[in-house]
Structure formats: C-alpha cells, structure tokens
Design brief:
Oligomer: heterotrimer
Radius of gyration of chain B: 18 Å
CATH architecture of chain B: 2-Layer Sandwich
Order of helices and strands of chain B: EHHEEHEEHEEHHEHEE
Radius of gyration of chain A: 26 Å
Helix content of chain A: 25-40%
Number of helices of chain B: 7
Strand content of chain B: 15-25%
Number of strands of chain A: 25
CATH class of the largest domain in chain A: Alpha Beta
CATH architecture of the largest domain in chain A: 3-Layer(aba) Sandwich
Chains: A alpha/beta, B alpha+beta, C mainly alpha
Number of helices of chain A: 23
CATH superfamily of the largest domain in chain A: Dimethylsulfoxide Reductase, domain 2
Largest interface: A-B, 93 and 82 residues
Number of domains of chain B: 1
CATH topology of chain B: Alpha-Beta Plaits
Structural class of chain B: alpha+beta
Number of domains of chain A: 4
Distance between the termini of chain A: 60 Å
Strand order of the largest sheet of chain B: 8-1-10-9
CATH class of chain B: Alpha Beta
Distance between the termini of chain B: 41 Å
Chain lengths: ~750, ~230, ~450
C-alpha cells in the first residue's frame, strides 16, 4: 500500500472518528483552534487531533486502543472504551507504547553485518538489496529441496501473523514455525485440554466471582490479560454493592497480586498442586462438591484420599486448619473460581499442578458459569489461526538443528530468544553455526545483533494487524490494528515483507499465501466476518463493513454463557502430584530462586522504554535497576543489609546485584525480576541490571516442555566491593517504631 | 460553577501504576534517569506509595496513589512570594509556570510532598519529543505538580459551553482516571450532587490525607474493606 | 592629661588605628589573593549552577532547601550582634563598647551582604528574582504579601540599609581625619565620604543626636529581621518548624553566634593590627559574660522547643526529633550541644578564661561551629522526615554547594579585610572620647569631640 492509499483510508476514518464519546468527543473542540502559520508536512491536519482505533501489541492480551494523532504524530494512547477486553482502560505498558514508535534507538532502515557475526558492527543497506539476498537464499533452499535448511524462529504471534508465518514456514517444507516465549501459555493450554477438554485460554470471570483462589497467577500484573483482570478486581471488591468478593493468593512471594489479595498464603515453591489436591480432598471428603458432575467425583474420589491434610500441610508448609478452611470457604462461597499461573507453570510439575488446580473448578461446578471459568465459543471468529507451541523444548530442538549444521538460513521474526532463553540453551553459540541469519526486529536486540541482515519491522502503530483475544469477558473478539501514523523511518511491516518474499521466491509458496500484503489478508477476513451478519457491526456490504471495523477497532459478539457451559473432556485426567525437581543441592544452594515477570518490562521487551524503566516497581519501588529480594531475617543471618551488593550463584551461573530486604519474601526463597540485564537493545536498556535467566538450569515441565524457570536453587553471598544502590521511589523504608502513624488505612 | 474533585477507592486500586505512566505521557513529565532517580529527583505527578505492615508471614503491603490533593486551604499557596500558585474558582490549585521563580517554598510546605521541581532542563533525545502533548507546557526550572489534567478540563468545558450545557458527569477524565483498569479513580464535579464523585465522597469509607491539618483536600480516599 | 592615658594622646590614637589604613604590607596582598581565589572559585561554581540547573546541588524531593538556606540563616544570624550590640551598648552607655562598635557594625554589614546573596543563588530562576520586588508592573501583579519570603525580602533590605547608615554615620569624623592625612585618589574618596565634616560643635551635637535615634531604631529592626527569618520556617506546617518559639529562639541564636563572631574578629584585629592597648582583657571579659548568658538562654530556648516536641509525641514531629537526635545527624547534634552549651558554659564562667584572648578565640569559633550545626539541624532533618513516610529522604551537599559556602566565608573575610584597608576598624573618636580627650579650642581637629558627648565618658580606660 502506498501512502496515497493510506491517506485516503485515514481520511475515511477521520470522518467518522467520533465513535467513542468519552474520550474522542472531547477532541472536537480543537477544530476551532488557530492554524499554525508554520508549513506542516503534507499529511498533517490543522491543529485538529484525530483518534484512531487499533490493538495494543505490547503483550498478547489484545486490548483495544485509541491513539490520538495530531499533525501526523501519535500523541497519546488510551484504551478503546468499546473494546470488551479492556473497556477503555490500559496498563502502563500500553501507555508507554508511544516510546516504541519514537524510540531514539530504533533501527531506521535495513542494515547488514559488517564484521564477524555478533560483532555488533552494521552498515546500512537498501531494502532491495536486503530482500534480494534473502530471496536468493530462500530460492536456493527450495531448489535444493532441502526443507530443513530454513529455521523460522518466532515469538508469540497475534491474529493472522500466526497464519502467515506458519504457512510461510510450511511452504518451504520446513517443520513449521519454531516459536518461543519465556512466559508462554503452553502449560495452561495442556492443562486446560486435559481438564476442560479445550486447548484454549478461558476467561476467569472476576466481575461476578465471589471467591478467587489464585495459585501463583499474577493476574493484576502480567498474567494473560492484566487490564481485563484489573477491571474484574475492581468489580469484585467494590462493583457490587453489598457483595464484596474475596481473593486468596497462594504463592511463594508477596507479589503485587498477593498484596492486593484479601489473603496471601506463602507456600513452598512447586507444591501448589499438592495444596490444590489437599483442598480437593477436603471438598470431596466433606461432600462439599455439590456442583461437580458425577463422572468427575467418580473418577477422582479414590485417588484424592491419599492427599490427607497432614501430608499436604507437611509438603506445602500451609497449616492443616488453613487448608481445611480454604476448602470449605471455596466450596461454600459461590460463584468461585480457582486458577494457577506464572510461578506454578514454571516448575517441572507445572501441568500436573495446573490440572489439580483446574479440577477445583470442576468439583465446585464453576465451569461455564458466571463468576467461574468460561471458554469463549468463538462462534463468529473462524479458527483460522494455528496455535504454535512456544515452549522451551521447541527452542531446544531448534538449537539441535542449528548445531547439526544443516540449517542454512534463520529467520528471526518478532522475538528475542537469545535474551529470553537461558544461556545454557546454547542458542547464542548455535546461531553462529547457521550460514545466514536475517532478523526482523525494530531494535538491535541480543538476537538481531547476531544477524547478518536486519530488515527492521515497523512498530505496531505503523502497520496493519489484528488479534483474537481469548479472555474477553464473555465476548468473541476480533481486534483490528491499523497504522495510526505513517512509517517514521525506512522500516516495513514484517508481515508485508514475508508476503513479498513469498512472492519473489516461487509460485508454489504463493499457493499458501495468496496475498500481496497484510491489508489484503485482513480485508479478506473482514469479508468472512461480514457474512456472519452478527455481532457489533452488521453491514450490508463489505465496503461499509471494513471502514466501520477499523473505526470501531474490531468486531465482537457477546457469548451466550449457557451455550458455553458444555465442556466434557473425553476422560478426566487422574489427579496426582509429582514432586517438583530442582537443580542444585540444598546444602550448597540453600535458596529457591523465584523469578517473576516484571510488571513494567515484562520479559525484557519493555526495557528500552524510558517511561517503563522509570516506573517504580510496585513493591520495591525501584526504578532503572535489578535487585534480589531477600527476607529481612534471612538477610540478617547472612549479614546482608538493604542495598548491599550480593552474588547470587547457581550451578549454571552467577550474577552480581543489589539486595533488597523484602518483608514479603519467604525465608528460603529469593526473588529476582526478569527484564533487565540487556547487553544490547538501546541506550535505556543496555548494561543495566542483571538477567536472572543467566542462573537457570535447562529443566523443563514434563508435559508441556515449557522452561521450568522456578526449578533452580541458588546461594546468596555478600559481595565485597561497592554496592550499587537501587534507585527507589521510597528511599527510606520506614521503621515501624519511628514512623508517623499511617492511620489512613484504618 | 464547578468544583472538581477526585475519589480514590483504595479497595479497588491494584497498585499497577498504569496511572503513573499515563500521567507522564499526558503531562510531558520528563524522564530523570537512573542517577537522578536515585537522588530522589524523579518526578511523579502521580505516584503510588507503598507501605509495609507487619512481618513475614503476616505481612501486608498497602498502596496509596498520591498526587496533588488540590487543597481548598492549600498550604502551598500563601507561602509563594510571587503568586505562582493560586486557587482557581473551580477549586484547583493552579501552578503558573511563567510566574515561578523557584523558591521551592511551596514544596516544603506541602504535607503531601506532591510538588516536583525541574532540577535540570528536561531533554528528550530525538525523536522522543514527538510524543510531547501539545496541550501541555514543557517546564524549565520551575515547580510543577498534578493539575487534574487542566487541559482536559478546559477542553471539556469548552465543548459543554458550545453545546450550551454543563459538563456531563464522566465526560472529563484526567489521564490517570481514564486508564485506571479497576476504576479506583473517579473524577468529577462535587457541586453536582448526582455526580459519582459527589456520591462516593459521602461514603462511610471516606477519609482525606492528613485531614487534621485542615487543608481540605479535594481528593477523597475510600479505605479498604475486608472480606465479609 | 593626655599623658595619663594608657596610650597617649589623640594623635597617638590616630597613628595606631590608622596605621593599617595608610600603610600596606605584603601580608595584605597575600591575604587578599588567597581569599580572592576562593571567591573566584565560588563564582565559577555559581556560573556552573546557573548554566546547568539547581540539580547540581544535592537537593532533592523532599529536601528542597538546604545549604544555601542554611548559610542564609547563619549569616543573617551573624549579622545580628554587630549592630545590635553596638546599639544596645550605645543606648545603655556601656563604656567598654568604645573600641568594639565599629568592628561589630562592619561585621553586620558584610555578613548581611553575604547572606542576601544566598536566596538569589538558591532560586531556580534567579534572573527573575525581581518578581519579588513590589514594583508596579503592567499586569498589576504585586508580590504576595502573605508570603514570609516577601517579609524577609523587605526586612533584609531594611536591615541592610539601616546597618550601612549605622556604620557610616559614626565613621564620618574618623573619615575626616583620614581625609586630612591621605593623598592622591584616596584623598578624593575621603573628601567625598566625609561629607565636609569639619568637627564643629554643631556637627558633633547633630551626630550625637542622630546616633541616639539610630541606635534606638535599629534595635527593633534587628530583632524583627531574625524573627522574620524564623517565620520563613515557623509559618509553614512542616513538622517541628511550625513552632511559636521559633522567633525568639532564632533571635537568641543569632545574637549568640553574632557575639561569638565579634569576639573572633576582635581577637584577630587585636593581633593583626597590634591594638592590644585598645582591645583589652576588659572588653573580652564583658563579651565573654555576654557569651555565657547567651549560651544559657540559647539552650533554654532549644530545650523548651525540644521538650515540647518530645512530650507532645505528635508522630510526625516526633519522627523529626528522633531523626535529629538518634539518626545520622546525631554527631552533628552532639557537636551542637557541646559547642553551644558545654564548652561556653564551662569556660565563660571563669574570669581568668574570659580574659584569656586565646581561649576567647577558640571558644568563639567553636560557638559558631555549633551554631552552624544548629542551622543544619533545624533545616535538613525537618525536611527529610515529612508527614508522608514514603516521601522521606536525606541530603548530602555537592562540591558546588560546598564551594559556594567556602566562597561565602572567604567573601565575608575579604570584604572585612578590604574594609580595614579603607576605614579605621576602631572608632577613633569614641576611643578618644572615652579617654577624656578634648579638642583644644581653636585647634582644627575634626576627629576629636569637643566635649563629652556622653556623660561620665571618662573611665573607659580608667
């Protein structure tokens, strides 16, 4: 699409850009403002701002956004009030997406390696040259009929990205896309398939729930769809007069979610599933499982008996009475919902634990009801997107392929696995064995710095796209993303580049990808949506449907809850407990390492945005840095004071960072947020803090193959040398005895 | 006449800090960087205060979003020698950047520590300045603070005036309110008894920060409830 | 009669006291060069500050005021005693004041000049400081008279003006003496400055009357200045600052530190200019008594304030007090107590020590160390421990602030040294008057009063 076309479209959207009275109406007043005498770029308006609807792609939640554009520049991102996922709300990362667009360290055009690979020396090249060199390699691979010579490496893919990327990879006969996400959804998908019969992510209906048992899921911070859950949290506490729900958070660290829960139950890492089984046992034994299907009770009753209070309490560290209390509260307070995530999924027994946790919903009849677990039926959105596994085991297989020397060309598509995987995966070294690496990345990150050629992607605010979020509060949703500003630099949408490459390689590949660009993909799909004649937009013709779709930022259809209740797995899985395995001997490495996704930087992808770097971590209030959280009593024992430099060491590596004494840490668990420790990735991220992934042993979850990032033991020792103070918002931790009474909370 | 006020429901607040970033984005609040932030010089017109309570395992962390309380009886106002901060007819505590000479007296006298100073001239490497909100001044070496997004209030009032009506409740949202997922922040006109903010401000859970000082803040907090 | 006095005739007095004015040694240049380079370094620091931003200071949120304001309060405090002592002693006809007044008055003028520079340096945008001046501007905008800073601005300018006049008036007869003894350009300077003083009886009687008025008027001005400086703090709602006792407490502290500086300066002048016969143990004895009294009064006020806070246990106030006494400021706190109470109390109690010039020098310097600590302790801990514990912080000065502070002390010293080069540092006519010297009828001697301006003047050196 050239710019003229784009402008026409923009004009079209601008004409009808007043859908959203809350925030958009407010802009109309500007039309009467004075016109600047300065000659503006041709696409600029005249002091009038316009709001364009799109989809946030800072994480995979798929929140709808509206972007304020003034004189050709995006100025502010807000939530799309009409979008069912976030209903006009947005998280910090979404707010900060503007700095992706205006990042001073963006690649401004294609570059190629000039020097040994990985040297970080790049020189500018042209798109023509770059595309030609990739096409040449791809043609060669095809003509050699050696399909496994292409490795297509991706991250989690949104909407039609997945379709195009997967078909592209398959068209070369390569074994499809290899995708990897550190905090991927694979364990949930497996566990959900086993218990609910659906390999999908459900929506947990906090808005209507009265009781929430969350095992490790940081649903207010990073888990699945934090804005959607944030809305639910508000409603659960104060949205229903006279009925205030309760949230119990069970996890080894007092996370933001745990601190905002009504009760935090610290638990020995990896035993969350055991606790769930103990609770299930009480529910079944005390005959509290009123809503459970008879089939479930039948198949589980006998197996649960072995999880006595005594055994569970011993294993989890949770007092017997509390386990019993939890079970009774949970069973008697309906509707209630139980879910597990984040740290639970990061153990070698991740799926086993998640299955046990999921079963609690089955026992209390919380599946498919308001306030429980709900799967979107997706009656409207055709299931066109392949689900590409993102587990660590897939990445390991890719490393093996690379190490075998067969791989000629590597395509890195929207991911930074060198940073988000462990050094022990050997990915970095393996990359050097490929003949040619081409990266589609907007930044010079740890992976693209190893490439021979970087064809920079446009940011999501400059390109077409879509998303199909699954946890939309009872809606089937199709979100559309559009370029809200024209491309700032000589960058191109990677999806467009893939489609162009497919065209230039040969006709057979085109068979799978019959489109010239992303816009055509989206338009075609819009046609199929229009034919449904249901949902939020109903129009006679595609010509009218399409601009309306863009104007609204998507299409959605309220699910019929009753219709979505019927979920019957063929056979319920047995409820068992596998002891978690840990790397490192207890005597040498006395602490469990708990790593968690940073609320601002996620797995590190937000580290190049200064707004996120300077957003205080909610608990430590730290900015711009890394730290390790240690229980104050433990720290005293180790002779470590707040702010001291410490070595954290595992069998796989060691890192030097600052200690933060953390009252919400278990005595034998130390926690480090992921996100910092970049060796590349621009001025704001580079050489700042440490990456705790450097410590991880390459253990995986037995069933999903996901990285067991919670399965490493470490030692902590005070480091000799000058400590690097962690800059914090709260600079002086108040000492209870000398503080002015913080009576506001009483 | 309007009387703008905000309600912060601590039982809804998740402490997620989306408001913190939204505020920065809307109000052109400069980035301090690691070193300056370490000296306590980062500006957060909106900040989330975290308080620890108790010790492991009976430990709690409490959060409180704190921003300019727009006091009706503001301690910052009388001490300014040059009237750089004054009280607007609509109850806002207005900071006139051009007038400020930088005595920082107001900041000392603010019991809520919500006034921030430009220790240095703000700088954004290109092309980050493109993100700047054209409705909000970039400040140099003066005192600054939360304005309740006065630029949005003005625009909302202009719109209402053109339409020949009063501002509708919820029509004007400061950036923090607009982005707050759990709906912990509510903004509106206290003079309109039907507005959400007026009704919530009568809640039995309400309190105001350091009410004993008699500053009469326009920000009402609703204390947390416990389950049951 | 002249031969009876311990130091001879009026002419001898002129010779003794004018020697440093009329003769310049290499030591003078060395001292000026040394002090001048410190001042220049401070000027560089100020330039760096202005070109970079207030961020080069160690200030932060919540400590928005620190070293510059500490220096301001300290120097305003120092300025107190000069004029005040001189005025009080003049009003009460204390004979022993005679060799002290000039030096004390000059000290006031220079400390207040230095003090006045600090609020300007402290401003975020000093180039618009004139917004504080009540001038009629186009917008019809006056400064905010409710702000203690405006009171401050007015009080300081009044006090500076008054002090200069109060320094200048009694200097006129002495200037006339120098006029008649100097040559070249300096002669023209003194011709201009001495306002044609001839030493006629009418002139003397007018001078005496004006001095009487000025001495009475300047006392309330001096008291009000430091009260107003204290109100910069007391009018806020900052914990501990908001205290009714602050005004008298500041005034007492100011007089205390001022007296200490007068002693220091007297010792130095005595030593540098060989004025042992003018500045006798008697003067130091009396100053020492004053120091003793002030030390006790100062502690009384401090204690009354601290006790109220301690006993009241108002949480935010108590947090500040705790932080001051038990926190990282504890060393400074004990420095203050030792230097301001323990040492002066146990030394100034004894006549032998009061009459020992070296002891007086050491004690007076220590008192000002203590008073500087007190100024720090008043300002920094209160700001570091605000009402919201999440906004607690701390403060450490940077090289820029330290440089400017050093330059301030050097600048004050430099001004004083230059003053001694141009003006008699001891009031010659008052000394002569105290000796009972009379101008002989018909002899044109402008620097000797024709008759006792004050009854019972004899005996100052009796």
């Amino acid at each position: 699409m050239n710019r003229r076309e784009f402008l026409k479209l923009v004009g079209l959207m601008g004409a009808g850009a007043t859908v959203l009275p809350g925030c958009i109406g407010a802009e109309q007043g500007e039309k009467d403002t004075l016109v600047s005498p300065v000659t503006l770029a041709d696409e600029s308006g005249t002091g009038t701002s316009t709001w364009y609807a799109s989809v946030c792609q800072q994480c995979s939640a798929g929140c709808g956004i509206v972007v304020r554009v003034l004189e050709g520049r995006a100025k502010k991102i807000e939530g799309n009030p009409a979008h069912p996922v976030n209903q006009g709300k947005l998280c910090a990362r979404g707010q900060a997406a503007l700095q992706l667009l205006y990042n001073p360290d963006r690649l401004r055009g294609p570059v190629k390696n000039a020097g040994p690979r990985g040297s970080g020396k790049f020189i500018e090249t042209s798109w023509d040259e770059g595309m030609a060199s990739v096409a040449e390699r791809l043609s060669a691979i095809r003509s050699q009929n050696a399909p496994d010579r292409l490795l297509f490496l991706a991250g989690s893919l949104h909407g039609h990205q997945a379709l195009v990327a997967d078909r592209f990879a398959r068209a070369f006969g390569a074994p499809g896309c290899t995708a990897y996400e550190l905090f991927g959804n694979d364990p949930y998908l497996v566990a959900n398939r086993l218990v609910f019969g659906r390999e999908a992510l459900p929506d947990y209906d906090l808005d209507n729930a009265s009781y929430v048992l969350s095992f490790g899921a940081n649903f207010l911070e990073t888990w699945l769809s934090p804005v959607r859950f944030g809305r639910g949290f508000g409603n659960l506490h104060q949205g229903r007069p006279g009925r205030r729900g309760k949230i119990v958070q069970i996890e080894p660290r007092l996370s933001l979610t745990a601190s905002r829960a009504d009760e935090w139950i610290p638990i020995n890492p990896g035993t969350e599933g055991l606790l769930a089984l103990g609770i299930a046992n009480v529910i079944v034994a005390e005959d509290l499982a009123s809503g459970a299907p008879p089939q479930a009770l039948q198949s589980w009753r006998s197996g649960l008996a072995e999880f006595t209070l005594e055994r569970v309490s011993l294993g989890t560290g949770v007092p017997e009475a509390r386990i019993q209390g939890l079970a009774r509260e949970f069973a008697s307070t309906q509707p209630g919902v139980a879910f597990g995530g984040a740290s639970v999924a990061g153990h070698t027994n991740g799926v086993v634990s998640l299955v046990a946790i999921n079963s609690l919903n089955v026992l209390t009849g919380s599946v498919g009801v308001a306030g429980g677990v709900r799967f979107v039926q997706n009656p409207g959105v055709p299931d066109s997107q392949p689900r590409i596994p993102t587990a660590y085991s897939g990445l390991r297989a890719a490393v093996d392929r690379l190490n075998s020397g067969n791989v000629d060309t590597v395509i890195v598509f929207g991911t930074n696995p060198v940073f988000t995987s462990t050094p022990s995966s050997g990915l970095r070294e393996a990359f050097l064995k490929a003949n040619f690496v081409v990266a589609f990345s907007s930044f010079l990150d740890e992976t693209s710095v190893l490439a021979d050629l970087i064809l920079p992607d446009s940011t999501f605010l400059e390109r077409w796209g879509d998303d199909v979020p699954e946890y939309g509060g009872g809606y089937s949703i199709y979100g559309t993303a559009q370029p809200v500003v024209s491309t700032a630099y000589d960058t191109r949408s990677s999806l467009d580049v893939l489609l162009a490459l497919a065209q230039s390689v040969d006709d057979t590949t085109r068979l799978g990808l019959p489109w010239n660009n992303t816009l055509e993909v989206l338009k075609e799909f819009a046609g199929s949506l229009q034919k449904l004649d249901r949902g939020s937009i109903r129009n006679e013709s595609v010509e009218q449907f399409w601009p309306e779709l863009l104007r609204q930022g998507g299409w959605w259809l309220r699910d019929d809850i009753a219709a979505s209740t019927v979920i019957q797995p063929v056979a319920l899985p047995p409820l068992v407990f596998d002891e978690p395995r840990f790397d490192g001997q207890m005597e040498v490495y006395p602490f469990q390492l708990h790593i968690y996704e940073s609320i601002s930087l996620s797995d590190g992808r937000g580290a190049n945005l200064p707004w996120l770097q300077e957003m205080p971590d909610p608990l430590s209030t730290a900015v711009w840095s890394s730290w390790v959280e240690i229980n104050p009593a433990t720290a005293r024992k180790l002779g470590i004071q707040d702010g001291d430099a410490v070595w954290v060491e595992s069998q796989s590596g060691k890192i030097l960072t600052a200690a933060v004494t953390f009252p919400g840490a278990m005595p034998d668990v130390v926690s480090i947020p992921v996100g910092q420790g970049h060796s590349s990735y621009g001025r704001y991220a580079q050489d700042r803090g440490v990456n705790p992934l450097d410590l991880l042993a390459p253990l995986v979850d037995d069933q999903s193959g996901a990285l067991a990032y919670e399965a490493t033991r470490v030692s902590v020792t005070k480091a000799v040398g000058v400590p690097k103070l962690v800059p914090r918002l709260v600079r002086v931790e108040m000492v209870q005895s000398e503080t002015p009474g913080t009576t506001f909370f009483e | 006449m309007y009387k703008w006020a905000m309600v912060v429901d601590l039982d809804r607040c998740t402490g997620c800090a989306a408001c913190v970033v939204a505020c920065r984005a809307e109000n052109n609040v400069p980035i301090a960087g690691e070193e300056e932030a370490g000296k306590g010089r980062a500006s957060f017109w909106m900040r989330i205060e975290r308080y620890w309570e108790g010790e492991y395992p009976n430990v709690r962390a409490r959060y409180m979003p704190v921003f300019c309380q727009q006091c009706a009886n503001a301690p910052c106002e009388p001490v300014c020698p040059v009237y750089a901060t004054y009280h607007s007819a609509e109850g806002l505590n207005v900071q006139v950047y051009n007038r400020c000479v930088g005595t920082r007296y107001c900041a000392n006298n603010c019991p809520y520590a919500v006034r921030y100073f430009n220790w240095f001239d703000p700088r954004w490497p290109d092309p980050l300045p493109e993100q700047l909100n054209p409705d909000v001044t970039v400040r140099f070496r003066v005192m600054e603070k939360c304005t309740f997004c006065i630029q949005r209030i003005r625009r909302g009032k202009e719109l209402a005036k053109m339409a020949g009506r009063r501002v509708i409740d919820g029509e004007i949202q400061p950036a923090c309110v607009q982005t707050c997922a759990p709906g912990a922040l509510v903004f509106g006109d206290l003079n309109d008894p039907a507005s959400r903010v007026a009704r919530l401000a009568m809640s039995p859970r309400r309190f105001r920060l350091h009410e004993d000082l008699g500053t009469e803040p326009a920000v009402f907090y609703l204390k947390e409830q416990s389950y049951g | 009669m002249a031969s009876d006095s311990p130091f001879g005739s009026a002419a001898r007095v002129n010779d003794d006291i004018l020697r440093p004015v009329l003769q310049t040694t290499w030591r003078f240049y060395a001292v000026v060069a040394l002090l001048g380079s410190v001042v220049l370094w401070g000027a560089f620091a100020v330039w760096y500050l202005l070109s970079t931003g207030i961020g080069v200071f160690g200030l932060n949120r919540p400590v928005y005021w620190a070293l510059m304001i500490i220096n301001f309060v300290f120097f305003v405090g120092l300025s107190h005693s000069g004029t005040l002592i001189s005025a009080i002693l003049r009003v009460t006809h204390a004979e022993w004041r005679r060799p002290i007044t000039r030096g004390a008055e000059a000290m006031t003028v220079f400390t207040i000049m230095v003090a006045a520079a600090f609020p300007l340096i402290h401003l975020g945008r000093p180039w618009v400081f004139y917004y504080l001046i009540p001038y009629p501007d186009l917008r019809g905008l006056w400064p905010n008279f409710r702000s203690p800073l405006i009171w401050d601005f007015i009080a300081i300018s009044t006090y500076l003006t008054g002090s200069i006049i109060y320094l200048y008036l009694p200097m006129i007869p002495d200037l006339a003496v120098i006029r008649d003894r100097s040559h070249g350009w300096r002669r023209y300077l003194y011709i201009a400055l001495s306002l044609g003083w001839t030493g006629s009886e009418r002139e003397w009687s007018r001078l005496s009357r004006v001095l009487g008025i000025m001495a009475v008027v300047i006392i309330p001005v001096a008291v009000s200045v430091h009260s107003i400086v204290s109100w910069d703090f007391a009018m806020t709602i900052v914990p501990v600052w908001h205290s009714t006792i602050f005004a008298p407490y500041f005034v007492v502290g100011a007089i205390y530190s001022g007296i200490a500086l007068v002693i220091t300066i007297m010792v130095l002048i005595r030593w540098v200019f060989n004025l042992q016969s003018y500045l006798q143990p008697r003067q130091f004895d009396n100053l020492g008594k004053l120091l003793f009294v002030m030390s006790v009064i100062w502690f009384y006020f401090w204690f009354a304030d601290a006790l109220t806070t301690w006993y009241g246990r108002e949480p935010s106030e108590f947090a500040v007090l705790r932080y001051t006494i038990l926190g990282p400021f504890a060393p400074l706190f004990w420095t203050m107590i030792v230097c301001n109470l323990v040492i002066p109390f146990w030394t100034m109690m004894f006549k032998q020590l009061r009459r020992n010039v070296l002891v007086m020098l050491v004690v007076s310097l220590l008192v000002n160390v203590g008073m500087y600590s007190e100024r720090i302790l008043i300002i920094v801990p209160a700001l570091s421990r605000g009402r919201l514990p999440s906004a607690w912080g701390s403060y450490q000065p940077t090289w820029v602030e330290i440089s400017i502070t050093a330059a301030a002390f050097a600048g004050f010293s430099l001004l004083y040294v230059l003053f001694t080069k141009f003006f008699p540092v001891v009031s010659m006519w008052e000394v002569k008057e105290g000796m009972g010297e009379r101008a002989e009828a018909g002899v044109k001697e402008p620097g000797t009063p024709p008759r006792k301006t004050v009854e019972g003047a004899e005996g100052a050196y009796g």
